[in-house]
Here is the input.
Amino acid sequence: MSFLGNWRRGNAPAFDGGGASYVVELTKRHPVVSLTKQGAANGHLRVNLSWQMRTSDLGERGGQRSTGSLLRNPGRLFKPEVVQAQGPAVVNVDLDLACMYELMDGTKGVVQPLGNFLGDLNGPPFVQLSGDDRFGSGSGETLYVNLDHRDEIKRLLIFVYIYDGTPAFDRTHAVVTLFPSTGPRVEVKLDERAPQARSCAIFMLENGKDGLTVRREVKYVYGFQAELDRLYGWGLQWGRGYKSKV
Here is the structure.
């Protein structure tokens, strides 16, 4: 779905966020990290979605392995086979990274590929999408958040939706990684089984009395943006949207 609104389009930033080489994974048991406490509540926060198209381990056409091969290399049984995007056994899926935002002045909206709502880094909403990866390449898709304007940001909901193709979050091995200006990278994996889910809320960045915090959500829904909107009470109006052809 496409948000019914109008933001001017921006160009991709010319920088790549920092962050240390080690990783903190947000899990159900440890779902929250404070950007303020680690001194990363300023500068540019980079949010990257990376994913791969894969077959299942066994039984997929084009993904089966011969008995002789498995006997010679038994360890291959437990390794998923990476396939090319054009291959016959491909998991046909197009993941999009997006963000619903609410600013301190009450302004609400969305940054997403649909409708070319690419955002603005130096003006409201201080969030910008750098690209749309249709084939699960190594670079993936990236959102930038300008935390130098954190006092104008109330909350951001980062989410992923399957624009086209098979609902198969668990088979894309998708990972959303946050690269703060300082401190460790923060990682959220989308590896839970959620058959037929089309969208997933990944994390919420909130500006509260304790400063800027990132909270893991990982809530799958069977609809698209409008269903996530209802779940989190954003109150936007949505209509059907399409991405431009490439």
Summary: The first helix runs from residue 67 to 72.
